[in-house]
Write a structure and sequence with these properties.
The protein is mostly helical and about 100 residues long. The protein has 4 helices and 2 strands; from the N terminus they run αβααβα. Helix content is about 55%, strand content about 5%. The structure holds calcium ion (2 copies).
């Protein structure tokens, strides 16, 4: 949530991604395997403080998946819309002014 305020982007989490590299691959499977039975830490994909069969299933289910790109915050999209509208209005005003002078 803190990234939302600083970058204006929402980062979507990828279930099964144990190391935060935005993809579920063999490294994530190894993290679950190497920490199976541990109390949380690397390999805990669902945050229940236990590396267990649910984490293995998360990696299995999302294996090969990559996280979608960051989604711009709606406010950013609205600001972009205002900027485009303002630029168009400015261009239309310049054309009218040029016609009036000639
Ligand atoms: Ca990963
Ligand atoms: Ca877990």
């Amino acid at each position: 949530m803190s990234g939302l305020y600083t970058t204006g982007e929402i980062t979507l989490l990828l279930p099964g991604d144990t190391n935060g590299d935005q993809q579920v691959d063999i490294a994530d499977l190894n993290n679950v395997r190497n920490n199976f039975g541990a109390a949380g830490g690397l390999g805990d994909t669902n945050g229940d403080q236990l590396v267990d069969i649910q984490d293995l299933n998360n990696v299995r289910h999302f294996f090969g998946a990559t996280a979608p790109q960051a989604v711009p915050e709606p406010t950013s999209l609205m600001l972009l819309g205002f900027a485009v509208t303002g630029a168009c209005a400015f261009q239309c005003g310049r054309r009218r002014f040029a016609r009036a002078e000639s």
